Amino acid sequence: MAVTALLIVPADARHRHRHHKPLAPRVEQPLTPRVDQPLKTRAARPLKPRRNRQVAPNQIQQKTQEPVASPADIPVPEPRPADAAKADSSTKDVQKTDAPKTAGASGVLNGEKSGQEKQALPEPTADSEGEPEPPAIAPTPTPKPANAEPEVEPPAVAPQPPQKPADAGDKKMLPDPRSADLPAEKMPQEEIACRERLNTLGVEFEEHKAESSPEIGCSIPYPLVLKTLGKSIAIAPDTELNCPMAEAAAHFAADVVQPAAKAEFGADLKSVSQASAFVCRPRNGTRKPSEHAFGNALDIASFTLSDGKKIEVGPAPPEKEGKFLNAVRKAACGPFKTVLGPGADADHSLHFHLDLEPRRHGGTFCQ
After folding, report:
1. Where is this region: Disordered (predicted)?
2. Rounded to two decimals, what is the model's pTM?
3. Hey, is 335 helix, strand or coil?
4. What string of H, E and C letters represents the secondary structure of 95-153?
5. The domain at 177-359 falls in which architecture?
6. What are phi and psi of 236, to 5 degrees?
7. Distance between CA 338 and CA 359 in Å, rounded?
8. CB 228 within 8 A of CB 209
9. What is the DSSP letter of 266?
10. Rounded-to-5 percentages of helix, strand, coil across the chain
11. C-alpha angle 116/117/123, rounded to 5°?
12. Within 10 A of 318 (CB to CB), how many other CB atoms are there?
């Protein structure tokens, strides 16, 4: 009966009877996001690139990153006492199933963040791609020392020294027939006659021993040392010459220089200063013996007059002295076979060179 009575009781009566039981206190629970459904992200609006504007990285991160609460930060309500056992078991199951889902959700969030950051960065313009940014500080080149020597590259082929002529190493004088002249036991007759003429001119002289050098080629077998060029004309220093050259010098002083001095200055010739006589040497720059090597040449540097006036041989003498020197020089060509002086070359700029070099057909060389 009792069972039958219960079966006839309407459903709404049973419902009212069940709600009359004492209810447990209700705990308000905050809403929690479901893990099985991914969060919907906002559609990122495309950013228009601005020309000549640079966005700092920290500003981009502040604009693109939005705080998203992680599941660990959301508070979980305390379970009911009756459902404690079920909560423990369900918590374990949820932890097992939620671990991969949480990892996947975090990966989705990180991917969305990186995508938003990439969209937020301004795209490079055509101007910025073509021109690299200049460095903040330009590098300074290392200064070179002031006294640095320039680097010289070695030549590709070593330069060869110029070939010397076959006789360049031979310093011997070229042969001259007069180099073999030696004094005889008895003085030749022409040498004796020459000395007699000198005595007639009033020339004072001394005999000197013969000199020769086969290596150099010089030779003077019957030399004389002149003290004067006449009765009133001295010569200094002592002059060693062969007799024919001494006689020619005496005639030149008495017959040419003396009349020219009298005509130009009204005074007599007192003395002659010589620069060179017998010298055992070759001609300058050659291996040919000089006429000085045979006592056959005389260099005159100056003339001194009876009034004390001295006339020096030079490239630019005063007008009156120059006229005198030109007259003497011109008259010397003939009695002497070679006459050189200022203007001929640098070696004869300060003296007259006079010699009796034998030439073909009795010719002369005067400059």
Report:
1. 9-188
2. 0.54
3. coil
4. HHHHHHHHHHHHHHHHHHHHHHHHHHCCCCCHHHHHCCCCCCCCCCCCCCCCCCCCCCC
5. 2-Layer Sandwich (3.30)
6. -145, 150
7. 10
8. no
9. S
10. 35, 15, 50
11. 105
12. 10
